[in-house]
Amino acid sequence: MSKRFNLWLLVLAAVLISRFIGMAFFPFADTTEPRYAEIARWMAETGDWITPWFEPGVPFWGKPPLSFWAQAAAIKVLGLSEFSLRLPSWLATIAMVWLVWRLARQIWDVQTAKWSSLVFATMALTYISAGAVMTDSFLALGTTLALVSFCLVMSGERGPWQWLFFIGVVIGLLSKGPLAVVLIGIPIVSWLLLFRQEVGSLRKLPWWRGSVLTILLAGPWYVLAELKTPGFLDYFIVGEHIRRFLDPGWAGDLYGSAHDQPKGMIWVFWFWASFPWGVVALMGLVVGWSQGRGLDVMRKAVSVSGPCFLLMSALAPMLFFTVAGNTLWTYVLPSLPFTAPLIGRWVAKLESGWLFRGRAVMVGLVPLLLTVFVGVAATGWETLKTEKKLVLFYQQTRKADDSPLLYLDDIPFSARFYSQGAAREVTEEGVIDMQQQGDYRHLYLAVPRDWSARQVAELTGSATRVLENRRYQLLAIEVLQGSQQSVSVASAVVRTCNMRFLLLWCLP
Length: 508
Hints:
The protein is α/β, with parallel strands linked by helices and 508 residues long.
């Protein structure tokens, strides 16, 4: 093995292992990560592997369970922690890095394959999602495995790749649903329209047996989920896959709010997701176009079978989501494993100039920036929207006769996760009732941080602020016990009687 190959492998390993820092030390910040983490935690705790639960009594119909299965299994093996819940996404990313390397090597050469894998691993969205509790990594793994297998089979590969195509479809169906089939189908159909002579090559895939395998592996969960919680298929298939993308302000979302974006915003998201490589590649394309080489590059990209398939696969997610207003930047992730080889081929051919000299900087840019960000956040940076510190303070402070951790009106997902489901929502009337009942010595209540002392006093006259974070202030409310509570009630009665007497005396 050459020294250059060793150096590439060491750099790639350093990039991927550096993500461990964020996986282990960065707290879950609302809303996506702690929401999915709590669903997985609840699955591991209850042993219900069919229906993911949004909260006790409320099924989560928004996503199939593959990511939750992986995260719940990690909890069972490694225990409950941020690291264990994030590990499955990291492993999925490792698999995609290898698939990118394998595909680029098949189409071009080893040097291109090395740069393609580095480009993919150091794109902003790839690096972030590799250590995040999300479903998108599993969708991208499914679509990447299916499309890479298809490309390799069309190029003459046999054996397991013929079946891995259908395994990729299964992974997609169990991680995100029918959307995976669409994202796999768009580049295949587009490629066949441009290379009609390749239609006969479709016989290389075992379509009938593969389709039966897909149904046998993915179908039973859909049936069981509908039988267990009727209404799932209507919400998930019609609502999540049709209404969500056609209606920017879709009001049917049971678990959050619609992400109303301008149509076409997905292309802007691509630049964010592929940073820094996408921006640099666009600059290189503009320079090449100004020198009269841009048209030749585009013509070559669509005239050769392999690069054309890469281009179609890279464009498919953006083409599909262009007309959608309800989008997120994570929707770009299935594009990146195919964007990376196109950019990697260009980077590998650089021989001089500032881009050639700056390749090493671009490899380390995103990992360095995110590692610094994680390090600052781990020191207790108060701008994160997480309840970890508040929950830990409560757990270390409370006594046996104190109340559960209470959040006024709405409880954040991070509070649910870090309290392991013990935190509770409560209304102002509920707080007053709990004070009057006297079941606890202290009530620990989180109220909005911007509440004034007057608002706190109107709710209770015996509160002490004991902690504050970005969004909340934690109040310790002393509950009057026994004779003290009787005196307080008696005083309130006297004040009420005096007020009534005064009103009667003032009336004519």
